[in-house]
């Protein structure tokens, strides 16, 4: 039996709406939290993705973040111009550039990671460890389900 139907649909119970609004609020709050570092939440998320993936390329980071490859390439251009990211030719495939953080980029990524963790803990204040663990597990399950469905055929 389907959970949603047109008769009982309410915006404040729609998972798409709630995920989008939470994401937008979260990114805006991270933007403000990173303002002193002159970094946006998307810049930081990109740099974090590079830091966590030893084989990072523009395409891999774009896929990891569900972001357009062209827009990601432009974001990497900005981060590279600021001296935070470095492109290096892949020795196995000369058409491909591996991405790494510069020492300055790695330090900035870590400073912002600590800011983000503090903000996330603030959002979850009053939640029990069990509630947070269950929430994360449910989001991971939804993520796997959505990934398995594949890209939209629009």
TrEMBL record:
Keyword Transcription regulation: yes
Alphabetized PROSITE patterns for the sequence: HTH_MARR_1, HTH_MARR_2
Cited SMART domains: HTH_MARR
UniProt cross-references to Pfam families, sorted A to Z: MarR (PF01047)
InterPro entries: HTH_MarR-typ, MarR/SlyA-like, Tscrpt_reg_MarR-type_CS, WH-like_DNA-bd_sf, WH_DNA-bd_sf
Alphabetical keyword list: DNA-binding, Transcription, Transcription regulation
SUPFAM superfamilies for the chain: Winged helix' DNA-binding domain (SSF46785)
All copies of domain HTH marR-type, residue ranges: 11-144
Record bears the keyword Protein biosynthesis: no
PANTHER family hit by this protein: MULTIPLE ANTIBIOTIC RESISTANCE PROTEIN MARR, TRANSCRIPTIONAL REGULATOR, MARR FAMILY
Protein name: MarR family transcriptional regulator
Species annotation: Sphingomonas citri
């Amino acid at each position: 039996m389907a959970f949603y139907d047109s008769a009982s649909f309410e915006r404040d119970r729609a998972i798409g709406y709630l995920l989008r609004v939470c994401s937008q609020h979260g990114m805006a709050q991270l933007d403000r939290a990173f303002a002193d570092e002159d970094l946006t939440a998307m810049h930081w998320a990109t740099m974090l993705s590079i830091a966590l993936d030893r084989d990072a390329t523009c395409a891999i980071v774009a896929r990891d973040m569900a972001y357009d490859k062209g827009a990601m390439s432009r974001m990497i251009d900005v981060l590279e111009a600021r001296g935070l990211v470095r492109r290096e030719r892949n020795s196995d495939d000369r058409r491909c550039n591996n991405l790494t953080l510069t020492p300055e980029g790695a330090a900035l990524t870590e400073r912002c990671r600590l800011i983000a963790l503090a903000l996330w803990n603030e959002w979850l204040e009053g939640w029990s460890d069990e509630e947070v663990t269950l929430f994360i597990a449910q989001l991971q399950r939804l993520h796997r389900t959505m990934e398995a469905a594949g890209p939209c055929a629009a």
